[in-house]
Amino acid sequence: MNFSHAVIVMGVAGTGKSTIGALLAERVSVAYAEGDDFHPAANVAKMAAGVPLEDADRWPWLDSVGAWARERGEAGGVASCSALKRAYRDRLREAAPGVAFVHLAGSRELIESRMRERKGHFMPVALLDSQFAALEGLGDDEYGVTVDVEGTPEEIVERAVGALARL
Asked: Which DSSP letter does residue 28 get?
């Protein structure tokens, strides 16, 4: 399978965006970018302190992710990025027309349990409620797929690849 445009793996914290994004990129032989790496230090510090980001904090970050996606061009690429709101995805689409989204979705209970198990990540479990409150699932008119995060990372990637192939 070839991606002719970038794919953004999206969802709330703890859904496995980084893990699934990296595995998906490897599976289809394209570059991978960790969306968290595009955050300025001030954003990371704010989240680590348990303070949700505001839109003003997110716009420069989204612009950086979008620029990376645009630069991938027809070579394709996969990036992780929460992209919780339609407005954020619209911003990414403006920067990188044709970008597809893979929304990783699951129950709050499952995602919280995964967040509690991970070590060394700046995003505290305390911010999960604000993530779910902000989340706007993909609209029917948006180019993308929703994939359940139940199962192993390999199973999730296979579901994502199959769903993307049907777009």
From this structure: H
